[in-house]
Amino acid sequence: MKQLINSFKHATEGIITTICVEQNVKIQVLAMICTVILGLVLKLSQIEWIICILLFGGVISAEMFNTSLEKTLDYINTEYDEKIKFIKDASAGAVLVLANTSTIIGLIIFIPKIISSI
Hints:
Blueprint: H1 2-21, H2 23-42, H3 46-76, H4 82-117
């Protein structure tokens, strides 16, 4: 049981540290908070909340995986390497694709609600 508790403790420390240190994760968390506030104001449906929560988790997890990969590559090789650059760029690009997709889905959910509330 102690090992399980420690696993959750370390995972929580990883989340908090990443949010505190990484600028892109801070931006994603801020976007998430703003989306939650807007969702409460516009009274999202249950399915709309489920979609938003899945997207929040996906984007922040992707940012954390990207950060982990970049830090690992920086640890392995401190000098410029074209192959490492490609890996980092592809990883960052994957996060960007997910973030942009999430934004589009968010607009599809929120724009009609904003228009109908005007």
